[in-house]
């Protein structure tokens, strides 16, 4: 592939939906990689946007390459390989990225945010109350 590029993403999941459309009877196979993108603040003369953290987005995955994405331990930093294609969008050519491979994967360790349940004390360990 002449126009093969690589970029690092924070991936949080993968989904594939394949089947037959009820209305048309056409086969479909849609694959998406869910990622997190850093949000940015912006200001123009008429608008101000304040942002922090990340926003979720999806990238299209070539349906013939879904097997490269399904067994990754999500969440992960992934160096994805993609090609840029021109697609017709409302009568004009628009560039679109399609993921075609995985160059490297680094799992992200999650931090537990919930308290760990503790065992209830046994009745014999309960404090004695004077009568």
Structural class call reads mainly beta
Helix content: under 10%
Q: Strand arrangement, largest sheet?
A: 1-2-5-7-6
Mean of residue pLDDT?
88
Number of helices: 0
| Major sheet size, sense and barrel closure | 5 strands, mixed, barrel
Name of the CATH class of the domain at 4-20 and 27-39 and 50-109: Mainly Beta
How many β-strand stretches? Answer: 7
Low-confidence stretches: none
- The CATH architecture classification of the domain at 4-20 and 27-39 and 50-109 is Beta Barrel
Oligomer: single chain
What proportion of the residues form beta strands (DSSP E)? over 45%
Ends distance? 84 Å
Give the key terms.
mainly beta, single chain, OB fold (Dihydrolipoamide Acetyltransferase, E2P), 54% strand, two-stranded antiparallel sheet, globular, 131 residues, 5-stranded mixed barrel
Q: Mind explaining what this structure looks like?
A:
By secondary structure, this protein is mostly beta strands. The protein has no helices and 7 strands. The protein has a domain at 4-20 and 27-39 and 50-109: Beta Barrel (OB fold (Dihydrolipoamide Acetyltransferase, E2P)). It has strands at 4-20, 27-38, 42-43, 48-49, 54-61, 76-89, 92-107. The mean pLDDT is 88. Strands 1-2-5-7-6 form a 5-stranded mixed barrel. Strands 3-4 form a two-stranded antiparallel sheet. A hairpin with a 2-residue loop joins strand 6 and strand 7 (92-107).
């Amino acid at each position: 592939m002449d126009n093969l590029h690589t970029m690092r993403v924070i991936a949080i999941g993968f989904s594939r939906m394949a089947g037959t459309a009820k209305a048309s009877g056409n086969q479909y196979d849609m694959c998406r990689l869910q990622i997190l993108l850093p949000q940015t603040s912006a200001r123009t003369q008429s608008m101000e946007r304040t942002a922090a953290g990340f926003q979720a987005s999806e990238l299209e995955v070539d349906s013939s390459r879904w097997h490269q994405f399904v067994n990754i331990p999500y969440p992960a930093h992934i160096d994805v390989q993609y090609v840029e294609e021109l697609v017709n969008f409302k009568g004009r050519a628009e560039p679109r990225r399609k993921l075609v491979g995985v160059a490297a994967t680094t799992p992200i360790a999650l931090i537990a945010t919930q308290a760990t349940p503790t065992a209830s004390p046994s009745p014999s360990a309960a404090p004695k109350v004077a009568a």
